[in-house]
């Protein structure tokens, strides 16, 4: 019965965790609300095409061919206190493309600039450079109902066949030199300006590889493994082996999820990311400790064996080290990618509930042991 209550508590916390981290701010703009755009953008008209450009980030793109060699664009996106951008690429890659990027600074002043995207490094993406020939005095940025609007006109016979979208980390605005930090999320879409067909970004889930890595590691090393350890310590019964099967099952699932997360983590791009080496090293340490625990299960002596007490000491302390390093590395990883506060809050609530439950159960355990 006690184990069932703990499982139900975990499930409720898990569901709350998923709902919290998936909560995103939605744009108030849509293709049916053109009145605000007309009042904000002088060259906008009802003849513009309107597309859901990047659904997971609520990007809306309005565009039109307004002259023989002139194309006009209006990009709208939710204001997350970060930069938003649209790039024009010939092959779908960010490198050697050009982008229009805009944001509102802390004094509510709007900034919009063209950037040449040399490569992933910030220094290789200088402001006020690029291959787009902009119509003079056509660029503007505006804010309406917590939505940012980037408007500009480009002189070209035919737009590039690929569009690149990007959004910066919330709260991390460019400094006074206007150089951009690495984006928080991005998407690429194949775009036919003549037909208005866009493929790619519209179907993107926005759940990046880094977030998949984070979620799997948090569920495995950060939640299931600590809960499995709690089951072994506080629900042990010599009369019924259910606690043992529950402990092993939870640890196996936790190990599998954590391992999957680590595999994804090794495939992440670490260029320009501070503290990545420390995070990677700690991840390897946790993986090694987890493997030792799995191997220890196969070499577990019977209870009457004299070596059993030494095995218990090693098994318990290696488990504690794995849990401690795992939790620390989760917070380090979240800070490296500058994840949203909701992730910290969600995991912090789950971890706090585990600590409170463990403290209460430990008190009861010691009181019974003293009887």
UniProtKB/TrEMBL annotation:
The species this protein was found in: Rhynchospora pubera
GO cellular component, one term: membrane
Region forming the signal peptide: 1-23
Transmembrane residue ranges: 213-232, 244-266, 278-298, 318-337, 343-361
Subcellular location: Membrane
Top-rank taxon: Eukaryota
Protein name: Cytochrome b561 and DOMON domain-containing protein
DOMON domain span: 57-168
